[in-house]
Amino acid sequence: MPWSASEAKSKTKSADTPEKRKAWAKIANKALKKYKNEGKAIRVANAAVAKMGSDETTDMLMVMDVLSSLRRKRKVQSRDPFGREAGTWEEEDAVVFDREFSTEQREEAEESGAAMKGGGFPIKNKSDLKNAQRALGRAKNREATIKHIKKRARALGVDLGNWPN
Question: What is the torsional sign of CA 138, 141, 146, 152?
C-alpha cells in the first residue's frame, strides 16, 4: 500500500512540515518496495525525517542519499583468519544520516559559535550534536572539541550527563 504525504503525520511526530511529509512518503514507499515490510519501511522513513533539520537544501540532499542507499547493493568478500576467501555475498548499504556542510555553511557556523575555529565540528541541531559526539575520535584537539560539544549541547538544551566518560 503506497503512502501519501497526508498519512505521514499519523505515523511520526517529526513530519511537522509539508516538505518533511513529502520526504517521509517518498522514503517510506521506496523502503516498502525494497524491503516488502511495512513496519521496516515506516521505521526507515521515521528515522530519516527525524534527522531532518530546518535547512531545506541539506534535507533534500539527505533524502536523496537515503533514497539512493535504498537502491544500492555491494559485493562483500569475507576472508578467514588465514587470508583465504570464506565467501562472497551481496550486502545492502546502510542508510547513513551524516550531514555534509559546505565551506560557506562552516564559515557561518564558526562566526555564530556553532562550529570550532576553522569550521570544524559544526553543531546546529541535535542530530549534528550526535554526529559530533560520534566523531570525537577524529578530533585533532580532543579537550577543545569536548568543550565545544558540551557548550553546544547546553545551547541546544541537551543534557550530556557525564559524557564522554
Answer: negative
Strand, coil or helix: 38: helix
- In the DSSP assignment, the letter for residue 16 is -
d(CA 131, CA 150): 13
The domain limits of the chain are 5-71, 103-156
C-alpha cell at 160: 550530556
With beta carbons less than 8 A apart as the criterion, state whether 104 and 95 touch: no
48-100 tens-digit pLDDT: 887 776 555 545 556 666 665 655 555 555 555 555 555 554 444 444 445 67
Q: Residue 95 carries which DSSP code? A: P
Burial 103-130 (b: 16+ CB within 10 A, else e): eebbebbbeeebbbeebbbbbbbbbbbe
